Amino acid sequence: MDVYGVNTVSSTCLILYLTPSHFHSKLWEWLDYYTNNPRRPTIEMASQADFKDRQFLAVIGDEDSVTGLLLAGIGHVTAGADAQKNFLVVDSRTETAAIESAFDRFTQERKDIGIVLINQHVADKIRHRIDTYTAAFPAVLEVPSKDHPYDPEKDSVLRRVRRLFGE
């Protein structure tokens, strides 16, 4: 496939930068598939209310990744007695249940988070949750860490793109 760029807008919305020749050749295939296939995937549009108040990033990752993003200014703690942070530092002693709890809190409970960044090696620990997450907001993006390189074969967003193109 002649893709020269992928921009993830959300877990269900992708912007692909295709070479003109590949786009032209695939355009009619896509149109035919979406108009003639009764089992085609449904496309859900997010309303403005869905993203209006989503102004923060959340991060689940190793200490270096979280620290770097906090130094960049993404840190936020909610007001009130049940103050919640928008980050989770994961190390070798962090239990999978704690990672799942943070993921659920950031994606389901917190309505002020627009993007969840998660180190790919951490996402592997809760891969079943990442792969089944389909909401438009917040977007879940897998990122590499200093000690664990990025593997595009594991990324659920890129797998969805490949499935869309029939590869």
Automatic annotation (TrEMBL):
UniProt keyword annotations, A-Z: Hydrogen ion transport, Ion transport, Membrane, Transport, Vacuole
Q: What is its main location?
A: membrane
Task: Tell me the InterPro entries matching this sequence.
Answer: ATPase_V1-cplx_f_g_su (IPR008218), ATPase_V1-cplx_fsu_euk (IPR005772), ATPase_V1_fsu_sf (IPR036906)
**Where in or outside the cell is it found?**
Vacuole membrane
Topology with regard to the membrane? Peripheral membrane protein
Q: State the source organism's domain of life.
A: Eukaryota
One GO cellular component term of this record is: proton-transporting V-type ATPase, V1 domain
Q: What molecular functions are annotated in GO for this chain?
A: proton-transporting ATPase activity, rotational mechanism
Which NCBIfam families does the protein's record reference? Answer: V_ATP_synt_F (TIGR01101)
What family name appears in the similarity comment? Belongs to the V-ATPase F subunit family.
Enumerate the PANTHER family for this protein: V-TYPE PROTON ATPASE SUBUNIT F (PTHR13861:SF2), VACUOLAR ATP SYNTHASE SUBUNIT F (PTHR13861)
Instruction: State what this protein does.
Output: Subunit of the V1 complex of vacuolar(H+)-ATPase (V-ATPase), a multisubunit enzyme composed of a peripheral complex (V1) that hydrolyzes ATP and a membrane integral complex (V0) that translocates protons. V-ATPase is responsible for acidifying and maintaining the pH of intracellular compartments.
Q: How does it assemble?
A: V-ATPase is a heteromultimeric enzyme composed of a peripheral catalytic V1 complex (components A to H) attached to an integral membrane V0 proton pore complex (components: a, c, c', c'', d, e, f and VOA1).
Q: What is this protein called?
A: V-type proton ATPase subunit F
What is the organism field in this record? Ophiocordyceps sinensis
